[in-house]
Amino acid sequence: MNAEEASGLGDRAEAMIDALAAASDDPGRLTRLYLTPAHRRAADMVAGWMAEAGLAVRMDAAATVHGFLPAGIEGPRAGKRLLIGSHIDTVVDAGRYDGNFGVVAGILAVEALRSRGIALPFGIEVLAFGDEEGVRFPKTLISSSTIAGALDETVLDMMDADETTVRQALVAFGCDPAALPREAYRRADVVGYLEVHIEQGPVLDRTNEPLAVVSAIASQGRYHVRIRGDAGHAGTVPMAVRHDALAAAAEVIAMIEEIALKGARASLVATVGAITVRPGAVNVIPGAAEMSLDVRAADDAGRDAAVAEIRNRVRQIGARRGVVVGIETVHEKPVAVAAQRLTRALATAIRTVTGAEPRALMSGAGHDGQAMIHLTDIGMMFVRCRAGISHNPVESVSVEDMGLAVEALVRTIVALAGEGAVS
Ligand SMILES: [Zn+2]
To answer: How many angstroms does the Cα of residue 354 sit away from the middle of ligand 1?
Structure first.
């Protein structure tokens, strides 16, 4: 590979990432939630780059920016398009590369294909989704679900913290919620979906590898655990007759960790990330506790088994302590397995640019591919990020790795074009 060319691509990516990072709704830190003024600025910037790269640009009813390049070669696949996307929304006080680099990589890859005079037998469409993180509204993947034809329209009535509904926010952004069903693509019109994303974990940094192929996006479930005991005077109620909801919650949390540690080989992870206690006073025995539970695994069966064991043990803890315990399912997303024809093309491309066989990683984090798999085959490439840190302002990806990722994406596209590509 031409090293100079790849590092040139990395420099371009870094400049675009810098520009996007300035589009924030919080002074001094990066926060860009769905359908906010910062989202508008980032979308406009992306649309401008797409137009400069020679793509036909439009914004759809869910505020996704589309940049389309028609096929350059006549043939049976000329009416189809290969989708390449990621998201431009961020978490609060975010890093600069999560999602954003995938969009930048897509634009730079198309630009490189054009400048190298490579004509493709199918169209390419770069997508900048606006809602992957699900921070503003209690729902994720609204934008990719729209294209995949998998949008649950009850989402439109969900509200943010200021009681603005998704519907109102879309209208204020200039989008037409009534047009959402018409944005769904047809399976027959799509070649596949590719996404480049930072790993957001420490494996590649530890193994000193720049790129990896994603084998699957983990099976994921979110649950709400409620524990009801009896509040009482912290000084007068003897220990033996207490029904302390928080003490029960502590035992439940330790039990969940124990189950997850046991399942570590099946990539099982379980996290209690939030807890509230009532009444929450120094001299009152806690009467109620509520907590979140997030469980992920390499397959649906592994997740289901872990959740079933947690439910069972929670019942035992509740019975022994005389507290009422309930676990409510918030949502469950099945594992999204990457398509072999796409992972093969990605692996070959990565091998060509890095000179080494790439490892296959499961993504513990959720991605737009979980929605896009309802439409078409998905394939993902991971890029090393420093110390595996993400969702954090110190998130960092090297210019060299970004250049390699864009070059590998270009070669993946050329491989998928197969015989039809003229280089
Ligand atoms: Zn992301």
So the answer is: 24
Global pTM exceeds 0.85: yes
* C-alpha 290 – ligand 1 centre gap (Å): 28
Alpha-carbon gap, residue 406 to 413, rounded angstroms: 11
Q: One digit per residue, pLDDT tens: the chain, 423 residues?
A: 566 777 799 999 999 999 999 999 999 999 999 999 999 999 999 999 999 999 999 999 999 999 999 999 999 999 999 999 999 999 999 999 999 999 999 999 999 999 999 999 999 999 999 999 989 998 889 999 999 999 999 999 999 999 999 999 999 999 999 999 999 999 999 999 999 999 999 999 999 999 999 999 999 999 999 999 999 999 999 999 999 999 999 999 999 999 999 977 778 999 999 999 999 999 999 999 999 999 999 999 999 999 999 999 999 999 999 999 999 999 899 999 999 999 999 999 999 999 999 999 999 999 999 999 999 999 999 999 999 999 999 999 999 999 999 999 999 999 999 854 443
CA 199–ligand 1 middle distance (angstroms): 9
Instruction: Assess contact for 47 and 68: CB atoms under 8 A.
Output: no
3-state secondary structure (DSSP) of residue 217: strand
Taking a C-beta distance cutoff of 8 angstroms, is the pair 334, 393 a contact? no
**Ligand 1 centroid distance, CA of 289 (Å):** 31
CA of 376 to the centre of ligand 1 (A): 19
